[in-house]
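Recall from the previous lesson that a structure prediction takes nothing but the amino acid sequence as input. Here we apply that procedure to HPr kinase from Alkalidesulfovibrio alkalitolerans DSM 16529. The sequence below is the only information supplied.
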Amino acid sequence: MSARVAALAEKFLREAPLTQQLGLRFGDTRIDVRSNSAALVAKLRDYYRDFLGEGGIADIEVAAIEREAVDIGLPLAPKTPEPGKRKIKEEFLDLPDGRVVRKRLTGLVCLFGGGLNLIVGPCIANDNQIVNFINNRYIERLIKRGCLLFHASGVAVGEQGLTLAGFAGMGKSTLALHIMRHGTDFVSNDRMMVERDTEGLVMHGLPKMPRVNPGTVLHNDSLGPVIPADERERFLAMPAEELWDLEHKYDAFIDECFGPDRFRIRCRMKALVLLNWRREKAPLSIARVDLTARRDLMPAFMKELGLFFEMDAETRGRDMSEGAYLAMLGDCPVYELSGGVDFEAAAVFCKNLLAP
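The prediction returns the following C-alpha cells.
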C-alpha cells in the first residue's frame, strides 16, 4: 500500500496550525503536547495538574487537532474485542511507517510511528481519549526500554510500593483508594510498567485519575467530592448488587479527594498483591504464593500491548511470555487475596506490607 502515516499527518497539520502548547513531565520523561485548540490544552492542563513540566527537550511529542470526525479513506480492519466482550471499539491499519487507529464511537483518528504521534477529530468532547493517547505514548517508551506491562493499580509509602492486580471486576482500583485512606500515595490506576535494575524492581505508573463507579464512592468517605449530592441520593437507593455492576464511571482527582502531592508514578516495588476473591459472605484469606506453581494467577496481571503500541523490529523480538514475567518478578513477594471481598481488611494488610 502506497499510503504512509507521515503523509496523512502532513495533510492534517497543514490545515491546522498548532499554536497551543503544553509541557508535561512523567517521571524522567518530558512530553510536549501541541494543539490548534486552546480549550483542549486548558482541559489537559487541569487534568495533568500534578505533572506539568515546561522547558527542556521533549522525549515525546504529541499533536492533537480539534476538528470534526474525518474519513481517511483507507480500508481499516476491526480490532477483535477482548475475551468476554462483543463490542468493536476500534479499527486499524498498519502502514510501512506506522499505524492508523480509528475510534468507532467518537471518530477520532490516531496516527503514530517513527516518533510521530497525532490524534485528529472531536478532541474536546472526548478529552479522556486524548489522555489515553498521551499515556499510551509513555507506556510505549517504557516498554521499549525494557519494562513489562502489568494490568494493575499501585500505591506507595516513601520509596516502596505495591502493585495491585486482579481478575476482571475484582476491584483493584477500589482497593487502591481504600489503602489511600491509610496515608499512602497513589501510583497508578490501571496500568503498571515494571522493570528490574541493579537494586531490584521499579514500578512506573500512569498519570491517569482513577475512574470509579458509584459503589466505590459510597463506601469511601474520602471520595465525597466525586459525585454531586443529587446523584448520590439516587445511588444510595439502589440495591448493593445492582450498584456493584453499574457501568457509570467518575474521575476521582487524587488532590481533591486526598490532598495535594499524593500522586507519584515511580517507586520501588516491594510486593505484588493479586485479588482473587468472591462476592460472598466468607472470611478474607491471604496467602503468599509461588507463581511458578500458580500459573493460573498469571492472567490476573499480564497485559497485552494492544493497538496503541508501535511494534518495531527490536521490540518484536522481545520475550513477553509468562516466563519473562516470572523472570522479571524473581523473588518478589506475591500474595493472593481470596475468600470473601473485604476491602478494609485488605487495605490494612497492604498498608502493613508497606511498613518499614
